[in-house]
Specification:
The structure is a single chain. The chain has about 280 residues and is α+β, with helices and mostly antiparallel strands. It has a single domain, classed as DD-peptidase/beta-lactamase superfamily (Beta-lactamase). It is built from twelve helices and nine strands. Strands 1-3-2-9-8-7-6 form a seven-stranded mixed sheet. Strands 4-5 form a two-stranded antiparallel ribbon. A hairpin with a 7-residue loop joins strand 7 and strand 8. Helix 4 packs across helix 6 and helix 4 packs antiparallel against helix 10. The longest helix is centred in the N-terminal third of the chain and has 26 residues. The N terminus is likely disordered.
């Protein structure tokens, strides 16, 4: 082999090594999904939990098959419903009021007292006031609602079943994986919504602020015809040390979700799962 050939081989070899190293670095930053077993923390509950670390791009999933299954979003749809209402001008801000008209929107006796009376966007989101969001959807209308579901790429995008009930007992379905993808785009500010709408959503979605963390989210509960009761909690958590954001989606099926797994218990379960995965410190309050 001549001097020129040897020099070329060395240069070529260095190039190959450089290309391989670049490929490995690129692969290390690519999104990864890992299966985790949280059965002990869940105590046998039929559930899935998906949590995506936006810094490391690693997503951890308990029960991947369930995580990929579409379910009725129930009141977790209040997140996109609020976005659409703000973007279309149906609501102005978190303090926008809709007057309660009992004749139009009767509240069953077994529903919370907080549902009775006029509501702002903030109170309706906090107390998950169904009549408020049904009226919001009517004011948005089916054409604008469908157009926005398409723009947001939310679940299967279907509003079949009625513009004011499609997320409760209609055709709309979304999986835990899709919830995480949607909320990731919200957190990263890549959804087609304004900065003002984004700020308002963050304001109304704040569940609690503890020592070094902020938990945002929304619960949802439903009993679709012929199906077991379903419970959701979706959202994201920001931590200060280390500084990170994790987007999550939890859903479960149980005959007594309403009675045995109300909002506060689901929040406690999700916090325990986040602690088990090291996202929140043990005993985070």
């Amino acid at each position: 082999m001549g001097l020129v050939s040897r020099a070329f081989w060395r240069a070529g070899g260095l190039l190959v090594v450089a290309v391989l190293l670049t490929s490995l670095v690129g692969c290390s930053s690519a999104p990864a999904t890992r299966s985790v077993d949280l059965s002990k923390e869940l105590g046998g509950v039929d559930a899935t939990f998906v949590v995506a670390d936006l810094s490391t791009k690693v997503t951890r999933v308990h029960d991947p098959a369930r995580a990929a299954t579409g379910f009725t979003p129930a009141s977790t749809f209040k997140i996109p419903n609020s976005m659409i209402a703000l973007e279309t001008g149906v609501l102005r801000d978190a303090n926008s009021v809709i007057a309660w008209e009992p004749a139009r929107d009767p509240v069953p006796d077994d529903m919370p007292e907080a549902w009775k009376g006029d509501q702002t966007l903030k109170t309706a989101f906090r107390h998950s006031v169904v009549w408020f969001y049904r009226e919001v959807a009517r004011r948005i209308g089916p054409e604008r609602m469908q157009a926005w579901l398409d723009r947001l790429d939310y679940g299967n995008r279907s509003i079949g079943g009625g513009v004011d009930v499609f997320w409760l007992r209609g055709d709309l379905k979304i999986s835990a994986n899709e919830q995480v993808a949607f909320l990731t785009r919200f957190v990263k500010r890549t959804l087609p919504i304004s900065a003002t709408t984004s700020a308002t959503l963050r304001e109304i979605m704040l569940i609690e602020e503890g020592s070094g963390y902020r938990l945002y989210g929304k619960t949802g509960t439903s009993a679709p015809p012929g199906e077991m009761q379903l419970g959701w909690l979706v959202g994201f958590v920001e931590t200060d040390s280390p500084r990170s954001t994790h987007v999550f989606a939890f859903n479960m099926s149980d005959p007594r979700v309403w009675e045995d797994y109300p909002r506060d218990r689901r929040i406690a379960i999700v916090k325990s799962l986040l602690q088990a995965l090291g996202v929140l410190p043990r005993g985070a309050e």
